[in-house]
């Protein structure tokens, strides 16, 4: 693993290896997970989603239908956000 997110990726991979198959990834709700993520990373969770969708779009030959199917969202909604660039969500 390389790049600026390699350390975060390694933390997640290490954590996942500790879980039993029936374990939940987190023992708290969505709102708390978003708060923790924002607190640790210093960026809004929308940045992570936008970055991920943009990454898939770029690497899947600009196939918005494939990305929409993968992230389980209506392609008409996704087209409003894809290519908006995740950079706009960066905290100044």
- The sequence of SSEs as H and E is HHHHH
Helix-strand makeup class = mainly alpha
> How much helix, percentage-wise, in residues?
55-70%
Distance between the termini: 27 Å
Whole-number tally of structural domains? 2
Catalogue the unreliable spans: none
Number of strands: 0
- Count the DSSP helices: 5
Strand content: under 5%
Alpha carbon gyration radius = 15 Å
Q: Major β-sheet, in short?
A: none
Q: Given the C-alpha coordinates, what overall shape results?
A: globular
Average pLDDT number? 82
What does this structure look like?
There is one protein chain. Helices cover 60% and strands 0% of the residues. It has 92 residues and is mostly helical. It folds into two domains: 1-42, no CATH class; 44-92. 4% of the residues are buried. The mean pLDDT is 82.
Can you tag this structure with a few keywords?
92 residues; mainly alpha
List the helices and strands and how they pair.
Elements: H1 6-18, H2 30-41, H3 45-59, H4 64-71, H5 75-81
Q: Can you describe this structure in just a few lines?
A:
By secondary structure, the protein is an all-alpha fold. It has helices spanning 6-18, 30-41, 45-59, 64-71, 75-81.
């Amino acid at each position: 693993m390389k790049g600026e997110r390699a350390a975060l990726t390694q933390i997640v991979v290490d954590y996942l290896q500790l879980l039993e198959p029936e374990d939940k990834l987190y023992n708290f709700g969505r709102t708390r997970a978003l708060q923790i993520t924002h607190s640790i990373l210093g960026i809004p969770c929308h940045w992570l989603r936008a970055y991920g969708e943009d990454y898939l779009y770029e690497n899947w030959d600009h196939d918005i239908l494939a990305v929409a199917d993968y992230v389980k969202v209506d392609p008409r909604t996704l087209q409003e956000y894809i290519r908006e660039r995740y950079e706009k969500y960066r905290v100044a």
